[in-house]
Amino acid sequence: MTIPVPMRTSSGAVLPFVALPQGELLTVNISGIPLIRDALGPGVHFQPLRLDIESGVWVVLATFSPGSMVPLHYHTGVAEVYTLSGKWYYLEYPDQPQTAGSYLFEPGASAHTFVCPESNTEDTVILVRVEGANINFSEDGSYHSILDAAAIRYLTGKLAGEQKLGPVNFITGGVAEAIWD
């Protein structure tokens, strides 16, 4: 169990607030995380960075092959996308392509279809942070699936085993605990 403690300066002075004791940084290096291939469809790969099931937040580095796409999905919370390389756009907003260096904020309740153009000459790589879930729909408007921190955690274990990737390191959330006086 992690208990907040008074924070001290490097000289030992006590600050007027408490903080979580942290014995080490919560960090991962992408070079040590295998690429989980075709995880959400052909050409849609990812590397999990943080999967916090308790808070419903997930952060992944996603790689898209030219011509790949993610079906129409509805966000239950906000999403933030930073494009590292390549080009992509939402089918509903074709005149607003996202390219390397683009940052996109998506409010909760937004809905769109992710498209990576077939004309791309390189993979598209994006850093994605999502609060909540993507509710995915089929082309006929029927429910297809849900993608949230728990689903990605499940897919990570299942696909890493099938693809013989070995252990996959990522940052997780906390644990449920009770505080009693």
- Number of separate helices: 1
Gap from first CA to last CA: 15 Å
Radius of gyration (CA) equals 19 Å
Helix/strand-derived category reads mainly beta
Uncertain stretches: none
Percent of residues in helical segments? under 10%
Query: Whole-number average pLDDT?
Result: 93
Cross-sheet strand order for the largest sheet: 9-6-11-4-3-14
Along the chain, the helix and strand elements come as EEEEEEEEEEEEEHE
- Based on Cα principal axes, name the global outline: globular
Give me the oligomer status.
single chain
Give the structure's gist in a few sentences:
This protein is mainly beta. It has one helix at residues 149-162, and strands at 5-8, 14-19, 44-52, 57-64, 69-75, 79-85, 87-90, 93-99, 103-106, 111-115, 124-131, 134-137, 143-147, 171-172.
